[in-house]
Design brief:
The complex is a heterodimer of chains A (256) and B (217). Chain A has 256 residues and is α/β, with parallel strands linked by helices. Chain A contains ten helices and twelve strands. Chain A has an eight-stranded parallel barrel, surrounded by seven helices. Chain A is globular and about 50 Å long. Classes of the chains: A alpha/beta (256), B alpha/beta (217).
Amino acid sequence: MLTTRLIPCLDVRDGRVVKGVRFAGLRDAGDPAELAARYEQEGADELVVLDVAATPQKRGTQLETVRQVRAMLSIPLTVGGGVRDMDSAAALLDAGADKVAVNSAAVRRPDLLDELSERFGAQCTVLAIDAARAQQTDSHPLRWNVLIESGATSAQRDAVDWAVEAGSRGAGEILLTSWDRDGTGEGYDLDLIAAVRSAVSMPIIASGGAAGPEHLVEAVRAGADAVLAASIFHDRAWSVRDVKHAMHNENLEVRL
Amino acid sequence: MTSRQPVLIVRTGTANIASVHAALRRLNVDARCAESPDELDRAQAVVLPGVGTLAAAMNEIGRQNLIEPLQTRLRDGRPTLAICLGFQMLFEGSDESPDVAGLGVIEGRITPLPPGVRSPHIGWNDVTFDDGWPEATPGKAYFAHSYRAERVPPEWQVAHTEHGGRFISAVRRSAVTGFQFHPELSGSWGRAMIARWLAKAGVIERDDTRSTEKHAC
């Protein structure tokens, strides 16, 4: 049976793992390759590396991080941050990524998803959505706006609609981050997960807000196929193995 | 131990070659990309990786004039490891790219996962071995695909997996091995699967495999 994936995430800046709250106030959390090796040994199913400060000038540093992590890692590696076009995606894949996550560039030019999927396959094309709860109104009781540029700008798009469009354009997975919950430890935005789940058939990776196994279990029950977390692992509040055992004890199918 | 001759990786244009390369390097095996049809023909062991669409990959190996030498070495049962899309390329064709022929070494056709099941099939799932590979141990492998082989001739089938019904997750005949999953991304279990094929191919000794596995990481 297909198991629920547990995915540690490394937010990387200038070759170091960092972590903040709502994408701000970044502090150092370690060396990417060392953390990657530790998480694989603890039973991580996959790893996501997001370059939170990627610019064309820093491309070389990002690729070097990917190479170092790849050399250690025998589980899948998704890399995102600053993927602007086919060339930057291809460079990440050449360096050792198995999938690329696109965010702002795909919002600005949705054809990028079609092109990535056509060339590298849907299973390689991950759409990252940073979603922020919108003001509720009578006609729209609950909705989310897509944020781009690391949360700095609203794309004036509905997150659920964007997920549906991405699927039709060939994205193979949605990396769904709640901007409201990111780094807060308040738990995943379960309404957001459920809303996207009911709209698309591809796998959803839930992200943003986990403080402990109970949050990951909730996210899976709300419809996530995979759960991503960063701070709880970096801070050693929980090991990957402990979280998987906790999920297993809640009758979720996991790889132990 | 380093192999006498490097393992040759076929450039299918779209593949995660770096991951395959890294997996071989962790087993102390040298690898590089195949540069010519002649080289491919002479190679001791060849990996046919692949992600993306069948049409893109077949066109790419066609452009490099590698289709015939690949077909020959596969039909002769010479050491070849086909992974994911590479595995699907062994068949006659795929509904994913109906106008393009596959390598046609295995009778049959690749079809989409049925509607109503999570697609792409991405993640870790059980690989259950049938009779063909007694020394293999069942385990969980990492899959990433939307199409699958529903059946293969019995002389090829060695393992199956369940997702929207049963599909073929591994084939083997002589020293030709094909995996629908990604052994290079399937942790220590995947590493052992690659090591078994390398031993069968004569690239590493069986004992070397064990000691390498023990000391890896």
